[in-house]
Amino acid sequence: LVSLFMSDLMVGLVVMPPAMLNQLYGRWVLRGDFCSLWYSFDVMCCSASILNLCIISLDRYLLIISPLKYKLRMTSCRALWLILATWTLAVLASFLPI
């Protein structure tokens, strides 16, 4: 949940202010090279948010189908690896195209 919070917070703090300026002025008013960086952060944060929701759904599914084995399957180390994989996939999907 903290990872989902961080991705949504980054959308609100990093992505939305330049998007608001873009909507207010009807054109890109910031430096031109900042546009591709902003777009990459937009894709990264939105992808991380969606992937975090998928991981949370998988976690809840595992808890429901086998509640007695859940503690053995979902250790804190595995949870950390899932979070790292989520953010790594989001970063690769957003910053590699630049």
UniProtKB/TrEMBL annotation:
Q: Which domain of life is it from?
A: Eukaryota
InterPro entries registered for this protein in UniProt: GPCR_Rhodpsn, GPCR_Rhodpsn_7TM
Q: Name one GO molecular function term.
A: G protein-coupled serotonin receptor activity
Tell me yes or no: is Disulfide bond among this UniProt entry's keywords. yes
**GO annotations of cellular component type:** plasma membrane
- Give residue ranges for domain G-protein coupled receptors family 1 profile: 1-98
Q: Where in the cell is it found?
A: Cell membrane
Tell me the PANTHER family matching this sequence.
ADRENERGIC RECEPTOR-RELATED G-PROTEIN COUPLED RECEPTOR (PTHR24248), IP13425P-RELATED (PTHR24248:SF199)
Name of the protein described by the UniProt record: 5HT6R protein
Organism expressing this protein natively: Sula dactylatra (Masked booby)
